[in-house]
Design goal:
Elements lengths: L1 H21 L5 H16 L4 H12 L1 H4 L1 H9 L1 H6 L1 H32 L1
Helix pairs in contact: 1-2, 1-3
Length: about 120
């Protein structure tokens, strides 16, 4: 279990290092997930121990959001000052996500019907 948690954190570290060295606009943990995904594709599956370690982290996921929620409350006045741009960004990004998802589903549906 410790070895698998170390693997997860090592992938995150690799993502952080790559992001830092190449000054990429992608968060290190996201790049770390890509590194782990590629490794699992090469391996051909998820080892049982790794799945158990990941499940343990997922069960505690709500605790990981506490620091972010605290930060939001600390900067509540700043959020209030930027309410209009933040609200617009949320609405536009949500609508864009829905539109892209719908177009992708239409395209995949056609591909499956043709195939």
């Amino acid at each position: 279990m410790i070895g698998h948690l170390t693997l997860i954190l090592t992938c995150q570290l690799i993502g952080e290092v790559i992001t830092g060295l190449l000054a990429l606009p992608v968060p290190g943990p996201v790049l770390g997930m890509v590194v782990m995904f590629v490794g699992l594709l090469v391996r051909g599956g998820v080892p049982d121990g790794l799945g158990q370690a990941a499940d343990g982290l997922l069960k505690a996921m709500s605790l990981l959001f506490v620091p972010a929620g605290t930060g939001v409350m600390l900067h509540f006045q700043l959020l209030g000052q930027a309410l209009l741009p933040l609200g617009a960004a949320l609405v536009v990004s949500t609508l864009a996500t829905i539109a892209v998802t719908a177009l992708l589903m239409l395209w995949l549906g056609k591909e499956q019907a043709d195939g």
